Amino acid sequence: MMVECWRNVDPISVVGGAVYIEDCTGDGCEVPEWVDSSGNKVDRVNWFMDSHRVKNPAYFWKMIIRAPEGKPEEHIAFWMPNHESAKASAIDDYVVSVNQLEANLAK
Fold first, then answer.
1. Residue 73 and residue 66 in contact, taking contact as beta carbons nearer than 8 Å
2. What are the φ and ψ backbone dihedral angles of 104, each rounded to 5 degrees?
3. Dihedral of the alpha carbons of 44, 97, 14, 31, in degrees to the nearest 10
4. For 32-45, how does the pLDDT look when each residue is reduced to its tens digit (9 = 90+)?
5. Phi and psi for 91 in degrees, rounded to 5?
6. What burial class does residue 38 get, using C-beta atoms within 10 Å of its C-beta: 0-12 exposed, 13-18 middle, 19+ buried?
């Protein structure tokens, strides 16, 4: 909705992508949503390997850049887990600073 509203006023750019991790079986798993009801880590990385031969991304990210004429650019960034708990109604929970997005992508 935000993009549709902004693009009628100023030029915008939208960039985004998927973030993959190697596996989620050891201590390196940093996807807190990938835990079952008993608190055990669930490896969702390989969910689609048998059926589709593709890895499952752990996160998705997006950044929207608004460039009002004669004014500084405005940015909003999102970092969202690839999990059914990530809902549009909770979009505010996934807003991060551009610095935080860059740090997450550098890991």
1. yes
2. -60, -40
3. 0
4. 777 777 877 777 88
5. -55, -35
6. exposed
CA distance 103 to 107: 7
The span from the CA of 56 to the CA of 89, in Å, is 23
Radius of gyration of the chain (CA): 17
Determine the 3-state secondary structure of 55 from DSSP.
coil
Contact 47, 82 (CB under 8 A): no
SS3 for 63?
strand
Q: Helix H segments across 8-97?
A: 49-52
Q: How far apart are CA 44 and CA 32, in angstroms?
A: 12
Amino acid at 104: N
pLDDT digit string, tens, across residues 58-93:
899 999 998 888 899 999 999 998 888 888 888 999
Global pTM reads 0.78
